[in-house]
Structures are given as C-alpha cells and as structure tokens.
C-alpha cells in the first residue's frame, strides 16, 4: 500500500534550522553528474546559524513531506523584487513539485510586500537550474539591477564561472 504524499510549506521555525544544511548537502549531490561542477557537492553549505538569521527575518520557508523537512527556500528583499538566495530540495524528494510549491509560496509573499517580481541567479545549462525556472515562467535578463550585478560578481569571486551563470526574473504582475 502506498502512503499518500502530503506536502506542506510553512515559514521556517527556529527549531527547524538544524535540518536545513543536510537538505542542501543532499540536494547538492545531483551536481556529481557534471564533472566540472562535482566540487559543489562537497562545497560549503549555509550554516544553521545563517538559516536562523533568515528565519528570524521571515525570509525562510520549509517544505515538509508527511511532516518531514525535505526542502527550503531563502529570500531577501531587493528594491522591487524578492531575490531567491537558495532553493534546495533533498535529492530523494526532487521531481515531486516541492520546488514549485516553495516558489509559489515566496511569490505570494512578494506580492504581499508589494514587490513586482522574483529574481535569482542560477546555472544557465544545468537542467534543474535555468531550464527548470524557465518552465515556471522565469526569463533570463541581461540588464542587471545593482543588486543582481553584485550577486553575479560575488558568485564569480567564489569560483563560479561567470559565463556559466545567469540572472532570471519572474514578473508577478
């Protein structure tokens, strides 16, 4: 007998943050399929302390599958957009619509804040990155806001090849 999958998304609570680094680490395992990006599977993840800061600011949401934490999304408000800092879904739970639900949740939050878009930076050619977001309506943007330009520069400084990344925007109007 198959147990029905019950997915819920809610704001991250302080006692949730200790589970989030392991989710990000598990999500990163997918990068092992790409030799030039495999190092990301071993890379640094966001610490529980950093997650706590996002949760305390109301910028973190948790996805639970049958009450078990399986994904999260972190954001920060920019001048007209809500920037997605990180979206991670445990590798074993990917492909079940959890990422879509997390994005829908933050889109609603952005609208309540009066923001007109969601933005993010991601890998151009990795299937679960830019192509995934494009299926959700995000479009690549060439003209970057100062905040997005800074994000791209920070990524390059941390070893991510500039030409392999892109900025994307989803209009909420």
Automatic annotation (TrEMBL):
Pfam families named in the record: Acetyltransf_1 (PF00583)
Keyword annotations from UniProtKB, A to Z: Acyltransferase, Transferase
GO MF term set: acyltransferase activity, transferring groups other than amino-acyl groups
Keyword Protein transport among UniProt keywords: no
Domain N-acetyltransferase positions: 7-169
Name under which the protein is recorded: GNAT family N-acetyltransferase
